[in-house]
Every structure is written in structure tokens, then in C-alpha cells.
Amino acid sequence: MSYYSILYYIGWMLAILAGAALGPAAAAAYAGENAGAYLSASAVAAFCGGALIIAARGVLARGYFRETLLLLIVAWPLIAIFAAIPLMLQGLTAAEAFFDALSALTTTGGWISDDIARATRSGTLWRAQLQWFGGFLSICAAVAVFARADFVGVQMPRPPFARGDDGASLRAVRRAAGLFAPLYISITLFCFAGLILTGVPAFDAACLAMSTVATGGFAPAEGGVSSYGPAGMAVIFIFMLMGSASFVAFSRFASGGRRMAAERDKETGLFLLAVFGFAMFIWLASGDEAALFQSFFEAASFLSTSAFAAQGAQTPLVAALVASVIGGAAVSTAGGFKIIRWFVVFQRTGSEIWKLIHPKGVAITEGRGRAVLGVWIYFITFTMALAALVLIIAGFGHGFDTASVVAVAAISNAGPLIALAPDGGAYGDFSTPLQLVLCGAMILGRLETAAALALVNIAFWRS
User: For residues 214 and 135, is the Cβ–Cβ distance under 8 A?
Assistant: First the structure.
């Protein structure tokens, strides 16, 4: 195994992080806040990133699948350590700063304290930027690694670039970054423009656009998204759906492959159908005929794992948790189990039930046993991880309802769900060991659970 390629890509991530820190530094200087915290973080990240790039340059080896998975599992916590530097210099403890930074990077959007997260303009902008960067990394990782038949159970629409064989997995990440960067930036700018047109202040619009497209669920206003009025919420609703839909389909439409995208993209229809179904359920359960748009907004909010609407939601708790576990498209910024996997699970379950009812019948299958088996393994590992997390949180002295909400929030990367917990509160109310456990759950959610387990498999390393 060659580690040079891993160091090289991590070096570039740190370099990007260093450049991103200059924005909050400027905002801090303008507002009379501590700009030095972000300048220091930028300098440290630039130095370390540059050193890694120089050290690895010229000795790059082919990036095999193992190297790619190792890069992903190392990148999340390592980048979060550097991203936590300005938060720590602004008064948070090392553990609290790491929690907030990792929560932002994984687009979880759960903070040690909501008041602290919004206390300064620089801190608000930094968290929104980290969410935006983490959302983009999630898309690249998904299309290069996870959006394959072995992981989702069906043949997914292929991106308009060659992912290569096992020896070119890391190159696929780079190609995905080059392909999706213009699209991701364009969608964010359109969201920003739409918010500006509805009267949202420019600073709030910038932070909100980055968080919305990244499905991070972070609203700069203390009152949440309801502070921006019906027009602002309508814009957020549209781009929340776009952030949780398939970016492969978007890229094919943008490149002119409309017919192929329409023929092969099942996820968009399934996701919109799920939004409609949950919205109707929420609307009927609320008994308020005037709350139709609010029902659609909440349905999209939870299915996209943004959880924007968690504060003051009319959605029943169980429905909100189920929707967050379902999640969005495989190649999107949304978390959760992913809706295409649920489609495969239900389809396979129906096939097995048919066989039980017709034991002598002959079922016609598509011959994708290995791919379907991969989804069942993912389903089992996801369920076991979620159950273990509930038990661990309960073991720290929290009630079952709170443990269930927080576990789903962490592993589905839907941090604002904590507002639905019976005792409300914030993640800062938890002990430091439990906060670190939740950090591991956030990473596990972004690593698609089953792929992360491959890294602790000895046979995987020896193959």
C-alpha cells in the first residue's frame, strides 16, 4: 500500500481549508472580532498542507480502492482538527471545537451551543463554509466510491467520466471534484440570488445558501428558517430538494445527456414521491388545512437530513426519525440510509414474500445476487450501528426517546433533530466522552457504514 497518494490529497484539502479561513478572518476584522484565530488556522493548515503536497509530489502511486477508503476515513477527523483551531482560540475547549468542526464538515449541523454558533459573524460563516466544503466532499466520495452496484444494489447512472478500475479509485475522486465543482458552485449561487430576491440579508443569504445546498440545516437567524418568511422558505425548500437529489443526474442534464438521465435515474422520482407521501401524512396528522406548505417543507427537511424544521415542527417524532433514516439520493449531500437502498430492500423483500406464497413458482430475477447481498449487509450493519448507538447514549443516563433521537441525528447526519428530543437541549449538555462517541457516529454515517467496516477487516488489507 502506498501512503503518498493519501498524503497528497489530504495536503490539497488542507490547502483549500487554509484559503477558506480567510473569508471568516475578513468577516471578523470587519466586525471587530478575533481575526487572528482564523489567520492562525489558515497559516497552520497552509504550512501542513503544503508540506504534504511537496513530500508526496513526484512519488505518487496508483490509488487502489483500499487507499481511497483510508483517505476518506482519515480525512474527516483530520481536517476537522485543523478546522477546530479557530473555534478553540475563540473559547471552546478542544473537544467542543472538534465536535463543532466535525459536525459542520459532515453536514450534521449539530452544535455544542446554538447561541455560540451564531454569536459571531465569523463563527457563523466558518461553520457554513465547513458544511459547504463537507457537502462537496461527500458528493465526490459518493460518486467515486459508494454509488456502485455492490453498495446500492442496482446499477446507478454512471457519471460522465471514467471511474477507472481498482487501481484508479483516487483519480475518480479528483475527476468527480473537477466535474461537480462548477455545478455545485452554480447551484449555491442560484440559491444565494434567490434568497437575496426574497429580501434575506446578504450575510444570512450567503451562509444559508451554503448550508441549504449542503443539507446542513444551519440557519444564521436565531428564530430559524421561519425568520425569513414564506418566500425565503420557498427558496430554501427548492434548493434543499436539489441538494438531496442526484448530482449525477444534474451533471448529465448540464452536459446534454437528458435522455440517458431520464431513462436511468430512478432516485429523483422515488425521492419526490417520498416527499409527497410524508407531506400528506404530516398535513393530515396536523389537522390544519392551512399548513400544507409547512407540511411539504418539513417532509423535505427531514428526508434531506437538513432538519431545518426540527425547531417547532408539527411532524410526529416517529415520522421525523423515519424520514431522516431514509435520507436522500446516493450521490447527494444528504445523509441517511439513502432512498435507493430502501427501494432495493423493499423490492427484494417483496420477491422473497412472493416465493413464500408461491413455493413452486419460478421467479424471474435480474441476476444481481451479489449486489443485493451488499445492500442487505449494509442494512444489517446500519441497523446494528444505530442500535448500538442508542444503547450507548442510554448508558450515559439519557432516556430512550432522547437516545433514539440523538442516535438518528448523528448517524444520519441530521444534527438539528435534537430539538425533537423530549428534554430538548443541545449537544453541549452531553459529557465529553459521549460527544466523542457521537463524532464517531457522524463519520460512520458519512462513510456509508459498511465501507467503514471493510477497513477493520484483515482480509481486506491482505487482498
Answer: yes
